[in-house]
Amino acid sequence: MPFRLPTAVLRFPRRYPLSWLVLLIPLSLTLYYNFGYLNQLAKYQITPAPSLSKEDPTTGNVQNTSTSSSAGDVLLVTALFPLVSSKYDLNSIKNLLQKIETEIYFFTTPEFEPTVRSYRGRLPITVDSTLSGPFDIPILENRVESYQDMQKKDRERSKHPPEVYAARNAKPYLLAEGLRRSEANGNSPKYVFWIDAESIEAKHAYKDWPSVHRLNSVWEEGRREGGARLEDMFFMPTWEMPHPSMSLWNEGMGPISSDFVDGSFFGGMPKAALWWERYFYAYHDFYLDQLRSFVGKDTSLMNSLVLLHPERIITVWHNDPKSPSRVDSIRNPAMKDLVLGDCGNTRRYFQFFLASESEQDAQRGRWDGAWNWRFWELERWFRRRESCRVTRVLPMEWLLRRPFGDMWRSPEASIRVS
């Protein structure tokens, strides 16, 4: 007589459908552990990232694979004005202050200065508490009324007080002013960068970041590919290409609201940082005073400036479909975050890109051994694992000719900034 399960047992899952979870969850975790996305056993499937390290053209030495100090060569500038918004993340700020050993110039309020100093500890920092808010900077101190009027054009005006616009648009000034004040104190950094205080990758292995040896290599590659002088090049990450229709854009059409460049990190050599300050505020005033445009989002203004002077911009684009480092097996657009392998939050790929070779290896180890709970995406379970790869630096003028065509030339700029 064939074996049959009791009727009560067969009816049980129908009466209590959630009981399936008792079976499915352990089964899913078992499959996930053995075949899943980011597990330790997958280290036997990981394809080592191709090495793109080259001889450092600035020093003539091979790029150092050990953590070496960039003290004095690189300056990071950032700011936090807590009164602007109550939504700042203290844990994210700790990722910058407690782990990155590069010199930092930090603008903040007198009330928040003790917190910044306690987070930083003995690591190098200059805390500047001479400003109580972004409207205290000379370029914006007379703009309160203009920004209040501009707020009426914001579709999310209830979430964005004028101080938020000012905090966004203060970045180029604070970058340049942090450089000026640092130089007045006897420092002479070779590179200076703005970084949003909350933008550092949560679980990172970066200390000597950005690596001066890596920066030297990136700048020389940018000069070789784009032709600009080293001291004139300005770096910012790219997120996505602008729509092909933007090939017809001109400065009279106003700032470009598009998810094009990333405004959380930008900079270069001192000359370029000072140029960006003059350039940014020249068009800020032009759009605000003459065209009455909305300039409350810094990246929209940055997008426009990049189209006007792409010859001075170098960038990195994680999603570059023509990258020589691209993983050929990733063809599903929904998995574009894996086109360079397992690289964590791809919005923060520029941090990996500018790290030293040894710290890139350490960060790969973190990503290769991490969990990701998107176990419902079955395609990720069975794919061949790939460690994060280093892509190339791109001259922006050359890059923009992909969506715009080879005959595209940057529109004429009526404002000249040297």
UniProtKB/TrEMBL annotation:
<protein>
    <submittedName>
        <fullName>Uncharacterized protein</fullName>
    </submittedName>
</protein>
<keyword id="KW-0472">Membrane</keyword>
<feature type="transmembrane region" description="Helical">
    <location>
        <begin position="20"/>
        <end position="38"/>
    </location>
</feature>
<keyword id="KW-0812">Transmembrane</keyword>
<keyword id="KW-1133">Transmembrane helix</keyword>
